[in-house]
Request: fold
Amino acid sequence: MARSSRIPSGSLVDFVDGLQARGRYTFTRETATRAVGSSAVAMEAGLRRLKTRRRLASPRRGFHVIVPVEYREAGCPPATWFIDELMRYLAQPYYVGLLSAASVHGAAHQQPMVFQVVTDRPTRPARAGRVRISFHMSRSVESVQVAKVQTETGTMRVSTPEATAFDLVRFADAGGHLGNVATVLAELAERLAPRTLVGVASLYSVPDVQRLGYLLDLVRERELADALAQWLAERRFRPVLLARGQAVRRAKPDPRWRVLPNAEVEADT
Reply:
């Protein structure tokens, strides 16, 4: 007798409930299909019904996040609940970075509206319910210093405060504007160690070291700025624009950093 393609009543729900009871909030379509023993067509129909009921969210096709009751209205739990599993599903190295990392480290002047992740290739944004994830590409993602941070469901990789500071300058557009970047750097400064900051500098371009030093000076973090100035003193460096891609203003480069201030920076400190 041919096997029915219909999922037995409650079996997919039981599978989802069983995962949640064990503290697991993600699964793949393939895993569910094997566990339930249904056809692909029946599984798709069952998953679609649970999504309609806001029981599941899917930031990527084939990858599902269980939505507990308290997040039904939002349509998805926070990205921290599933980012590590999502990136493992995509088979991409990653770390949580930029404003999202700064927030983890206590620089929460302005909570980021988008969860920001750095990975090694162009990756389209992900969205599930109200959760939005943006991806930024870096070829040195696997060499950046990261820390494993405990989350509600496991752990996630987060750039260290020092790496976060450099990334905020490198991906300045992701920080909103330079004034916001400077504000976040001022809040992040108490978590930065001069020696560690210098140790991270070699992973970034010299112009980014110049820009970071300039902004640290701007927010009066003299000890941190002095450490980077000493690092630069041992290297040859040219004048650089503070803001990439913006018009060059008639201004002389800053003598200490050789940064041309072609954008106004007003930090909220």
